[in-house]
Every structure is written in structure tokens, then in C-alpha cells.
Amino acid sequence: MTFLSRISVDNDERAARLAGIGLMLLSISMFSFGDALGKFLVGTYAVGQLLWLRACAALLALSPVIWRQRAQFRNLERPWLQLFRVVLSTLEVAAFFLATVYLPLADVVTYYLAGPIFVTALSALVLGEHVGWRRWCAVLVGFCGVLIALRPSAQTFSLPALIALGGSFSFSVLMLITRSLRATPDVVMASSQFVGTFLLGAVMAPFGWVTPTPGSLALFAAAGLISVTALFCVNRSLKLAPASVVVPYQYTMIVWAVMFGFLVFGDVPQPATIAGAVIIIGAGLYIFLRERKLGREGNTVNPPA
Questions:
Q1: Around Cβ 59, how many Cβ atoms within 10 Å?
Q2: Quick one: 75 exposed, middle or buried, by C-beta within 10 A (0-12, 13-18, 19+)?
Q3: How many Å apart are CA 27 and CA 171, to the nearest integer?
Q4: Higher confidence at residue 125 or residue 91?
Q5: Neighbouring C-alpha atoms within 13 Å toward the C-beta of 70
Q6: Alpha-carbon distance 149 to 228, whole Å?
Q7: Over the range 193-217, which residues count as b (16 or more CB within 10 Å of their CB) and which as e?
Q8: Which of 31, 164, 265, 295 has a CA positioned 20 to 30 A from the CA of residue 301?
Q9: CA–CA separation, 264 and 273 (whole Å)
């Protein structure tokens, strides 16, 4: 390879990485806006109604892609594991929005940021992957951050906080399964998640149904379209650049959560939440750096669809 061709390859790789980072930042801002929109809607409408109408909009947007790539849905690998993944995805999305009914957006997002820490621990305990003492220390530090953010006491160790933490744990198991189903096409991964929320929402929606106004219907549709667009941005980002390069930028979600929480809902984050988020992010970044040094790109984090 000549010197000039080498420069060209380096420039192409650098451009791809920058594009991947840009898409990741864009996707996180869109996911965060969609989360804030969902929290706004569940202030008036039931969570089941949000899940169903949001999934309707998402599946309508995806329908042309699903039709064009319908052959991808045949002969899927490990169908029972695919089904379990859909169940987990549905439960964690429902837990996320249910928790936002009672908790500030920044609190819920903080618990979900612990996902990479849970993944590292589960990789060792469930999959038997080797995790060195440095990453185990990072896992323990991250759990301390979760406890600080959770503020466990008789008054603050609440059911909504446990729901959010349970959703975060489900999200972590979901990531592990997604990692083991890497051969599954993106359109199958994305559409199956929305099918799951569509079905759960259809069961839950009649309970507490409130007839939406035209303006609210537009917001439900926007929530679905935003989540689809953001999901495709994440997938494209991970194809353009290594996970260890782009995934740490997902921690900007806490910045958006604090901003939307303050501007839209008047939520002022508690010092414990901020301190816990900083500790969780620090531990998560250390884990990512260790993964990068060891040459592993498996611990990807996709925000809730």
C-alpha cells in the first residue's frame, strides 16, 4: 500500500468514525426527546395507550421496509430466544414509561445508564466470559453509584424506583441476548420490538382509555416516528464505527434527561442523582476502555426502542 493510498484509507476510516459519532449523538438526542414526549403523554393517558399508539405509528413507518425485506423474517435463528428477546424488550419499555409517571426523567435514565455495568456482571456469571479484577472493581463502583442514585431509605426506596431498576436489569439481559443474535437482520430486530409493545399495549390500552385529541394523536405518532428514526441511526452508527468508539456517547442521555426534565416538567435533579450518575458513567466508561483495550466490541448499548 502506497503512502497516498494509506492516507486515503485513514481519512476514510476517520470520516466513518466521525459520521458514526454524529449519528450516535443525533440518535441519543432523538431518543431523549421521545422519552420526554412519552413522559408528557402519560401524564394524561395510560401507559398501555402510549405503548399501543406509539407502536402503531412505528410499525406503519416500518411497513414499507418490512415488506421489501420480508424474506429476512424466514428461518430466523433460535426462534425461542428471539421470542424471549421481544418479551424482555416489551417489559423494559413498559417499565421505563411506567417509572416516568412517578419519577423525574433524570432518575429513570440514571438507572438505565447502569446497563453496561449489569451486562459486564452478567457476561461473567451467565455466559462464563472472563472478566478481570479491574472490570469487577468497576462493576462494584457502578453498583455503588446505583445505590447512591436510588437513595435507599424507608421513604425513597419506592416501588417506582424498583420498577425502573427492574427495567434496567431487563434491558441488560436484552443486550446480552441481542449480542448472541448478531446474525439477525436489523429490520427483524427493530420491528419485532415494536410488535411486542403493540401487543402489550393492545391488552393494556382498554383499561383507563382516554379518547385522544387530534393534537395528542399527532404527539403519539411523533413518538413512534422518532423512536424508529433514532433506532436506525443507532444501528447505522454501529456499522460505521466500532462500538467502543460510539457507545460512550450514549451517556449524553443524562444531559438531555436533566435538561428536558427541568425545562418541560420543572424537575430539579437531586444531588444524590447527579452524584450517582457521575459514578455510573465513570464506571461504564472504564469498562468500555477495558473492552477496547482487550479488542472486544460486544457490549453495545441500544436505548429503549
A1: 17
A2: exposed
A3: 18
A4: 91
A5: 4
A6: 30
A7: bbbbbbebbeebbeeeeeebeeebe
A8: 265
A9: 18
Distance from C-alpha of 126 to C-alpha of 131, rounded to nearest angstrom: 12
Residue 267 CB neighbour total at 10 angstroms: 19
pLDDT in tens, 269-288: 888 888 888 888 888 778 77
CA count, 13 A, side-chain hemisphere, 104: 23
Map residue 37 onto helix, strand or coil: helix
* Set of cell numbers at residue 253: 442521555
What is d(CA 54, CA 82) in angstroms, rounded to the nearest whole number?
Answer: 22
Q: Cβ(210)–Cβ(53) under 8 Å?
A: no
Q: Which residue has the cell 477495558?
A: 290
Q: C-alpha cell of 277?
A: 450518575
> Rounded CA gap, 188 and 178, in Å?
12
pLDDT in tens, 50-63: 999 999 999 999 99
C-alpha to C-alpha distance for 183 and 54, rounded to whole angstroms:
27
Output the pTM of the full model.
0.81
Contacts (Cβ under 8 Å, ≥6 apart) of 90: 193, 196, 197, 199, 200
Extract the C-alpha cell encoding 144.
455503588
Count CB atoms within 10 A of the CB of residue 128.
8
What the block records as the C-alpha cell of 200 is 402489550
Contact 131, 123 (CB under 8 A): yes
Residue indicated by cell numbers 460505521: 240
To which residue does cell 414509561 refer?
97
